[in-house]
Amino acid sequence: MFKGAMVAIVTPFKSNQIDEKALRELIEFQIASGTDAIVPCGTTGESATLSHEEHDRVIEITVDAVRKRVPVIAGTGSNSTTEALRLTKHAYEAGADGALIVCPYYNRPTQEGLYQHFKTIAENVSIPIIPYNIPSRTGVNLMPEMVAKLAQIKNIAGIKEASGSIKQMSDIINLCGKDFAVLSGDDILTLPLMAIGGAGVISVVSNVAPVDMAALIDAFEAGDRAKAKALHYKMSALIDMLFVEVNPIPVKAALALMGKIEYEYRLPLCKMTETNFERLKKTMTDYGLI
Length: 290
What we know:
two-stranded antiparallel ribbon; eight-stranded parallel β-sheet
């Protein structure tokens, strides 16, 4: 079962090309910091602006760099089932340990359409699959009853839940049982989710503060609730700043401030406003990251 502090890793660019050296260095930083899994080509990895060739290459680089030290859960979602299936097959062939597949966006399928989408992929690729529910980006909400139906499919191993609803997370845990990994898609809800039986987080803040997110989950699992709570509040202001503009704009700016990547995006994403950049810099300084 996938669990713990997993990083939704950024895709570094240099002169509008994938910066392979920086990506490999980020992966080493994450593993040395106690991160439990690497998740490339998600929202934070700017998958929407990667070509298919680039998408495949980022997954290949990640698998090669990780060398089985921790799981690699490759983002392989699309609003086309055929396209998501191709991406998932490639991730499996490249050696990924799992696939994170976002609910189809823009076309807003019904609950039955969502079921058929994930079922089709699961039946055609023998890789553990984690559906990713994020209604604010996709326009559809994968409901707990449908998650429970999907959980009956052998290789659907869990869900990344970013509905923002603890009630919805609770219902999924109650319906799906302890062997189904419910992972937070919202950093600030990691501790509340763990308290009701969640398995961990696919995290944005782990890009810049991986030691603290890993320590929060380790502390909770060790029964040290006071330490877990202290780390939750320690990260709170940093998490707020990492979402002051749409993800991954602030987190890439933060990594640039730390000297780990170039301050570069793919349009239509662009650099932060100067005001927010200065606020981020102050938050990073106060946290001790720069």
